[in-house]
Write a structure and sequence with these properties.
Blueprint: H1 8-23, E1 38-40, E2 46-48, E3 61-64, H2 80-87, E4 92-96, H3 99-105, E5 113-114, H4 121-127, E6 132-133, E7 139-142, E8 145-148, H5 153-166, H6 168-177, H7 193-196, H8 203-214, H9 222-229, H10 233-244, H11 248-265, H12 270-276, H13 282-292
Parallel strand pairs: 3-4, 4-8, 5-6
Antiparallel strand pairs: 1-2, 7-8
Helix pairs in contact: 1-5, 5-6, 9-10, 11-12, 11-13, 12-13
């Protein structure tokens, strides 16, 4: 269901997943509906859509991609007819990013858990007080309603729906064909450690982070980092802490623990996940899981 100002990746991510499912023989047919035959996208290109709304069954899925929305109020125009069609759907509905607002206007979020892009979570909660907005997760499933965070999380949402309907092996096959690095769980944070500590403007520290991220499973010393930055070990620690709020060692530990948590969430044992990310054994990982979750000093 296309809304004026739709973000292309909000649309293309899920569409690619379901067309990939069709390509391997699953019975998917994609259709695009809107209030007008031509829908402008946020990125400038126009999209074609059907204006005759199809009669759906419980086997059908409606996906509402998000649109350009610095705020929800006053954005995403939808006709009463389109909202009525969405509201009356007997099957599952899903949204990406601001698309959750369309579900809210149709009354589909009332009494349900949901999520959206982290910049819009507070406003979504104010607009729909009967809903429970779950913050900083990739997607939330509550009965037939599935909502996801922003942009690329629509891929995670669609892969989750495929896995639920056809099994995780099928979802993994589609993810591989899309060259998706990993299928993330719904409870994963919207912003990984790779992004949370990258909001500074220190180019040297960014270079150091690049090195740590590419070799986070190795034993990196301050001397190694000092060689990259062409300065003393003491200066490396001072610059890194000033820019990120963390020491280089703590940053590496956070990356290791986050990757280990991902591996455990996808079936690895604590021991195998610990060794895969560079820890000596599971005991060290268990200790650091608690330490990394505490506020940095």
């Amino acid at each position: 269901m296309l809304v004026p100002g739709v973000h292309l990746l909000d649309l293309a991510g899920p569409a690619q997943v379901f067309s990939g499912a069709r390509d391997i023989g699953l019975p998917y047919e994609l259709a695009y509906v809107a209030d007008a035959a031509e829908v402008p996208s946020a990125q400038g290109s126009a999209l074609r859509a059907e204006t005759d709304l199809p009669v759906l069954t419980a086997d059908d899925l409606i996906v509402v991609p998000g649109w350009r929305a610095p705020r929800l109020a006053g954005t995403g125009p939808l006709s009463p007819a389109l909202l009525d069609w969405l509201r009356a759907h007997p099957g599952a509905v899903a949204s990406v990013c601001a698309g959750a607002d369309a579900l809210g206007r149709a009354g589909l979020l009332d009494g349900r858990r949901c999520t959206t892009h982290h910049d819009l979570q507070d406003e979504l909660a104010r607009r729909y007080p009967a809903a429970t907005v779950v913050r900083d997760v990739l997607y939330v499933t509550d009965g037939p309603v599935v909502t996801s965070a922003g942009i690329a999380s629509g891929i995670d949402l669609a892969l989750h729906l495929v896995a639920t309907r056809h099994g995780p092996a099928t979802a993994a096959r589609i993810a591989r064909s899309m060259v998706v690095y990993a299928r993330r769980n719904g409870g994963d944070q919207q912003a990984s450690a790779l992004l949370r500590h990258r909001s500074h403007v220190d180019d040297t520290v960014h270079r150091l982070q690049d090195v740590i991220e590419s070799r986070f499973h190795e034993r990196l010393t301050l001397a190694d980092l000092a060689g990259v930055a062409a300065c003393s070990e003491r200066t490396v620690t001072r610059m890194f802490t000033r820019a990120t709020g963390l020491t280089p060692l703590r940053y590496q530990q956070i990356l290791r623990v986050e990757r280990a948590e991902h591996l455990i969430g996808h079936g690895s044992t604590v021991e195998s996940a610990a060794r895969a990310v560079g820890f000596e054994d599971g005991r060290m990982l268990r200790r650091l899981r608690a330490a990394v979750s505490s506020p940095p000093r």
